[in-house]
Design goal:
This protein has 989 residues and is mainly beta. Among the domains are: 220 residues, no CATH class; 183 residues, no CATH class; 131 residues, no CATH class. It is 6% helix and 27% strand. The protein is built from seven helices and 54 strands. Strands 11, 12, 13, 14, 17, 18, 19, 20 and 23 form a nine-stranded antiparallel β-sheet that branches. Strand 39 and strand 40 form a beta hairpin. Helix 6 crosses helix 7. The longest helix is centred in the middle third of the chain and has 14 residues. It is globular, with a radius of gyration of 30 Å. The two termini are 21 Å apart.
């Protein structure tokens, strides 16, 4: 929607990022100036800055107008529409600015942590990351113990390459645990697997960029941050920032499969780039979970604390498909000696859940039915406890209301306090079992938390520490959560009826957390091509000296005598955690098992659409324009068809579902259509099958002559021939039985009989200009190494398939989503997995009337009646106002000519009210710039004249002075090469 800069819009002018004061939105005032963030307390926002302080701290993102300083609009990714995980039920914003969530609501209308979907019900303000360490080489006492937290993490540079990157499980070059580029380590000859990180750089210095990385989930965002950039060092804050010299590789992902849709995962990989050892490194952060509808004022003020909910330890029975069982079929008799020959080494293993939650006090009249939870899922461990923790868990925790001082248990505000808390020196609030034991706060309030894990000792230059967290929302309320401690104590004592299954059923938050940990634990499976496999049961730790280190002598939990490993000898493996469930081994085959973490099914990725904001912008000369005259053309590519299932290796795609959302009026806090807004236009299955001889069918009809065809007849419930047609000249008695003629890769809908033919377009080509092709296993075939069981499919760009929707009206906003589904399993185990429908406001499409020559333009609606209540307005295309579109309304000029034009609006007394140009931006307030050729950026918005056939333009009834126009009669002119047109319209307020 087009708005004015003085109404709080982020404008993109020739690639320059300008942030202007949001006068309409910044209403809260205090002694420090207008508050720039959602909440007014210092602890309620990252670094607790006012607007003036924020602009002073980050001057590189706020250039003076006319200075000629250009900055990429996606650095940092907190402005406008950004990276939002939206394939599941939890919509969460991810940034490259040290936080996830969206506390900067004046900068972006993206959801922070909404559930379910784009509901406008928020459960998260933000979660920030903090890392503390001791610099043993520092001479300045103030630089010895420092912490890098929240917005002190920045993109490495201001170059366009340092941005958020998108991917999904199975994407080209992004298959996990796979050597995508088939390269080898020149020193060892071993394959290099997932050696890249998707960040736009050549990390392994082999001349290629992002050619072999690992992506997880059906939607993945990755980025790199550092704590020592010039921008971080020059930031103005309450104390001088002293960096640790760390690089942070961040990856966030979400799943769209059943049972995995209510949580999002964020993985942090910290790399020491300081050039020296960092000691006592600790990782943690601040979490501010809020519960309530975004439309409500101060909805975070009535939350209740649920410290430690649902932390616990539960057993998980090892499934038969998991080779960590190491049963008698995998062992030679008598090995290991302390286990009977007919049993398993790992019948079950423990699931430890570490988390904390908050809940809305009264549920907001059933508008807030969920409980948000922050979980610590995993981090780097040392089984011996020499360099790091021996198991995953918190080091320290505290929960508090925003007004609580640090000495009273509140949040730290200086680096000295942050390091004291992160290291556990200020108290841990943990019990002997490692779980949170802080008593929950009983009063209502705005609760926040700090957490930490570690420490890791003597992290060398180039050393890495990895931490994985999750944010999740599940159905529940405070009354239910209050019962958990008692029930868990009864379970731990063996007195809870129904066992762990009953506990999981009663507490959805626990069930969610349990599903996350089970998914992370994954399974052990046979894989002979993996280069790093253990050499005996239970041995999880590889040991091999580095050059110059000398021999290493050690004994593990089952060694009778010590073993010695030398640099010139092979890697040896040790069982340091005394757990047979780690380091699974098949003694009969003399082969270790491969540990596949995050073992989850995956539907095909949804295809790329021409209605996406990343594609549908005026400066994209190669696009298929979606908006037409009372019609929308939806086009997509075949990315879903050429992506193999990451678990089975099959090309198991079966079809598409096309969805549409209409009558959306932008409810407060909503970033796009909710689940209830979508309707199914059609389910289209692909004709792609093999005959009994294993040959791919080219068509499903036979021809007796070049002009005839004999097609299979199908009963189509919703199909009707026109009366008197050639199919039934005497009356349509059997009108629902029709012939369906299909060719390879055609799509058809069984309900309507509609067939979508493949478009004859050129293939998608790689950098060398060669057609991209995917090679993978044919659905249902075994032994995929056999070429006879593999097939190749060519990649095609957007336009491979096209569907025209004529049930639309000009000037109204519509949304479209195309989801892909697959076919998994056989017989009773057959299961279809499908992607999730989703869209944001930036993806909206507005049909446009055709350009006309030699005729007068007119205005719709005329008269315009501007009632305050949106439901009373006759212009039903109006939307609820928000920060990027403060009026929510528009009138449209119709019948405009082709070519450039200028519209001028006047009062009846001849005063100029506003001027519109054909090249003006329409939706720049919700669109960001996009990568262009040669490392440049191009405007990502639509223009008033979006294409040569566009004869419609909109105006938001804001004058050139930034004011709402008043009631009256207005005149307008349209100047173009074809002459001048005149007209008038009426506004009634």
């Amino acid at each position: 929607m087009r708005t004015k800069a003085w109404y709080g819009r982020l404008r993109v002018v020739a690639g320059v990022l300008l942030l202007l004061l949001a006068a309409a939105a910044a209403t809260a005032q205090d002694e420090q100036g207008p508050r720039f963030f959602r909440k007014g307390t210092l602890d309620g926002t990252p670094d607790g800055m006012t607007e003036a302080e924020f602009k002073a701290a980050f001057p590189e993102y706020f250039p003076v107008q006319g200075s000629g300083v250009a900055r990429p609009t996606d650095i940092p990714d907190i402005f406008g529409p950004g990276a939002v995980l939206s394939v599941g039920n939890l919509f969460m914003k991810v940034t490259n600015f040290g936080v996830f969530g969206n506390p900067w609501t004046n900068l972006s209308s993206d959801p922070s942590g909404q559930w379910p979907g784009a509901s406008g019900i928020e459960y998260l303000n933000f979660s920030g990351i903090a890392v503390g360490a001791v610099n043993p080489l520092a001479t300045d006492p103030n630089a010895i113990r420092r912490v890098s937290s929240n917005t002190e993490w920045r993109p490495p540079t201001l170059d366009p390459v340092d941005k958020m990157y998108r991917a999904y499980d199975g994407i080209l070059n992004g298959a996990r645990f796979n050597n995508d580029d088939l390269d080898l380590n020149p020193a060892t000859g071993e394959p290099r697997i997932d050696e890249e990180f998707q960040d736009g750089y050549d990390n392994d210095l082999d001349g290629s960029i992002d050619e072999d990385y690992g992506a997880i989930g059906q939607q993945t965002y990755s980025c790199v941050m550092r704590d020592d950039t010039p921008q971080a060092l020059n930031a103005v804050a309450n104390e001088r920032h002293v960096p640790l010299g760390l690089e942070l590789q961040q990856m966030a992902w979400a799943f769209s499969i059943p049972g995995f849709t209510d949580f999002d995962i964020v993985q942090y990989n910290f790399i020491n780039r300081s050039g020296h050892v960092l000691d006592s490194l600790v990782v943690g952060g601040q979490v501010d979970m809020d519960c309530g509808p975004a439309v409500a004022s101060s909805y975070w003020a009535d939350d209740k604390d649920l410290a430690g909910y649902p932390s616990c330890l539960l057993p998980h029975m090892t499934p038969a498909s998991d080779k960590r069982l190491q049963d008698s079929t995998m062992r030679v008799r008598g090995v290991p000696s302390e286990v009977s020959d007919d049993s398993s080494l790992c019948t079950h293993y423990d699931i430890r859940i570490h988390g904390f939650s908050v809940a809305d006090d009264d549920g907001d009249l059933n508008l807030t039915p969920g409980i948000p939870t922050f979980l610590l899922v995993d981090h780097t461990i040392d089984p011996l406890g020499v360099t790091g923790p021996t198991r995953v868990g918190f080091l320290a925790f505290r929960s508090y209301t925003g007004s609580t001082p640090y000495v009273g248990g509140g949040g730290p505000r200086t680096d000295q306090q942050r390091f004291e808390f992160l290291s556990g020196a200020a108290g841990t609030n943990l019990g002997e079992d490692g779980f949170i034991n802080q008593a929950r706060g009983e009063e209502r309030g705005d609760y926040m938390s700090w957490w930490s894990c570690g420490p890791w000792l003597a992290v060398p230059n180039g050393g890495r520490v990895q931490v994985t967290v999750a944010f999740t929302v599940a159905t529940g309320n405070k009354e239910l959560a209050y019962e958990f401690a008692t029930d868990y104590m009864a379970f731990a004592a063996g007195r809870y009826s129904g066992g762990s299954g009953a506990l999981l059923s009663k507490y959805p938050s626990l069930d969610n957390a349990y599903a996350i940990q089970v998914a992370y634990e994954g399974i052990y499976e046979q894989r002979s091509d993996w280069p790093w496999l253990t050499n005996f049961h239970g041995r999880e730790t590889p040991v091999h000296p580095t050059a110059g280190e000398g021999a290493i002598t050690a004994a593990d939990c089952h060694d009778q005598v010590s073993r010695t490993v030398t640099f010139t000898g092979p890697v040896d493996w040790f069982d340091f955690d005394c757990d047979y469930c780690t380091g699974a081994y098949d003694n009969r085959r003399k082969l270790g098992m491969f540990h596949r973490t995050w073992n989850a099914d995956a539907p095909p990725p949804n295809p790329n659409l021409n209605v996406s904001a990343q594609y549908n912008y005026s400066d994209n000369s190669s696009r298929i324009v979606p908006a037409g005259d009372n019609q929308v053309t939806v086009a997509w590519d075949n990315a879903s068809e050429v992506t193999a299932d990451p678990k089975s290796g099959w090309l198991d795609f079966r079809g598409y579902r096309v969805w549409k959302a209409a009558n959306w009026q932008r409810p407060v806090g909503s970033a796009g259509p909710s689940d209830n807004d979508w309707s199914l236009l059609g389910e289209f299955r692909q004709f792609h099958y093999y005959d009994a001889n294993g040959l791919l069918l080219q068509r499903n009809y036979s021809k007796s002559s070049p002009t005839d065809s004999v097609c299979p007849k199908m009963f189509v419930p919703n199909y009707n021939y026109p009366m008197g047609s050639e199919h039934c000249p005497g009356g349509c008695i059997d009108s629902a039985t029709v012939g369906i003629c299909l060719q390879r890769d055609d799509l058809w809908d069984r309900q309507s009989g509609q067939v979508i033919r493949v478009s004859e377009i050129d293939c998608a080509r790689d950098r060398e200009g060669i057609c991209d092709e995917a090679f993978a296993c044919i659905l249902g075939r075994q032994f995929c190494d056999n070429p006879l069981n593999r097939e190749h499919r060519t990649r095609y760009p957007v336009g491979r398939y096209q569907l025209v929707d004529r049930e639309v009206k000009n000037g109204f906003v519509y949304f479209y989503s195309v989801t892909a589904f697959d076919s998994t399993g056989f017989g009773r185990t057959a299961l279809e997995l499908s992607g999730r429908r989703s869209a944001t406001e930036a993806d909206g499409v507005v049909p446009q009337g055709l350009a006309r020559e030699g005729k007068s333009a007119w205005v719709v609606p005329n008269p315009y009646r501007g009632y305050r209540n949106i439901e009373d307005r006759p212009s039903s295309w109006d939307l609820t106002p928000n920060g990027s579109d403060p009026t929510g309304t528009h009138i449209d000029f119709m019948g405009l000519p082709r070519g450039e034009w200028t519209i001028k609006v006047f009062t009846v007394s001849g005063d100029l009210v506003q001027t519109l140009f054909s090249h003006d931006a329409v939706n720049e307030s919700i669109r960001t710039a996009l990568p262009g050729p040669g490392g440049t950026t191009v405007p990502g918005y639509n223009r008033q004249q979006d294409n040569p056939n566009d004869g419609q333009a909109r105006w938001n009834l804001i004058s050139r002075n930034g004011q709402d126009i008043v009631s009256g009669i207005y005149l307008f002119t349209v100047e173009s090469d074809g002459g001048m047109q005149r007209g008038k319209f009426v506004v009634i307020r």
